[in-house]
Amino acid sequence: MTRRPEGHAGRARQRRKVALALKVAVVDPSALAPQKDPDEFVRAHGVEYSGGRLVETAVSWAMYVGRTFLEGIGPESPVLVRREAVERVLDYVATLPAPARLDRADVIARW
After folding, report:
1. What is the pLDDT of residues 55-90, one digit of tens each?
2. Looking at the domain assignment, is residue 98 inside a domain?
3. What is the dihedral of CA 5, 69, 63, 105, to 10 degrees?
4. CA-CA distance, 105 to 63, in Å (whole number)?
5. What is the spatial distance between Cα 28 and Cα 57, in angstroms, rounded to a whole number?
6. What are phi and psi of 50, to 5 degrees?
7. Inter-residue contact 30 to 58 (CB < 8 Å)
8. CA angle 110-85-94, nearest 5°?
9. pTM for this predicted structure
10. Residue-wise pLDDT tens digits, 14-46
């Protein structure tokens, strides 16, 4: 099977499909340290502790994707760069399906 390069529109379609199909949570890898993945973390700390810890630190898929649009953007960034980042986030939030309404509010509220 040949893999097609996906452009911005292709990635947007993929994000919408994932958001519709699953309630996905993303764990920050630094929360797992010194283990490298969730499986190692659970083996090292046990299911009870790990489940709670991983749930505490997890963010929704919508929030994770929204944050990726703002990587490297801060108050010191030029105004034009910050405005473009806000536009990207707002465009993304507009694509979120109805089940992600709470995520929409979270994505906007955190920025």
Report:
1. 777 887 778 888 888 889 989 999 999 999 989 888
2. yes
3. -120
4. 10
5. 7
6. -60, -45
7. no
8. 70
9. 0.55
10. 776 665 555 667 787 778 888 888 788 888 888
Give the dihedral sign, CA 5/9/11/17: negative
Question: Is the C-alpha dihedral spanning 58, 110, 96, 66 positive or negative?
Answer: negative
Total tally of structural domains belonging to the chain = 1
- Report yes or no on 2 lying in a domain: no
Q: Does position 10 have pLDDT exceeding 70, yes or no? A: yes
Please give the pLDDT value at position 1. Answer: 47
Residues 63 and 103: beta-carbon distance below 8 Å: yes
Tens-digit pLDDT profile for residues 89-101: 888 888 877 666 5
Please give the residue range of the domain that contains residue 54: 8-109
Phi-psi region of 72 (alpha: psi -120 to 50; beta: other; left: phi over 0): left
24-55: burial string, b at 16+ Cβ within 10 Å, e else: eeebeeeebeebeeeeebbeebeeeebeebbe
Q: Which structure tokens are listed for 61?
A: 């898929």
CA distance 38 to 72: 26
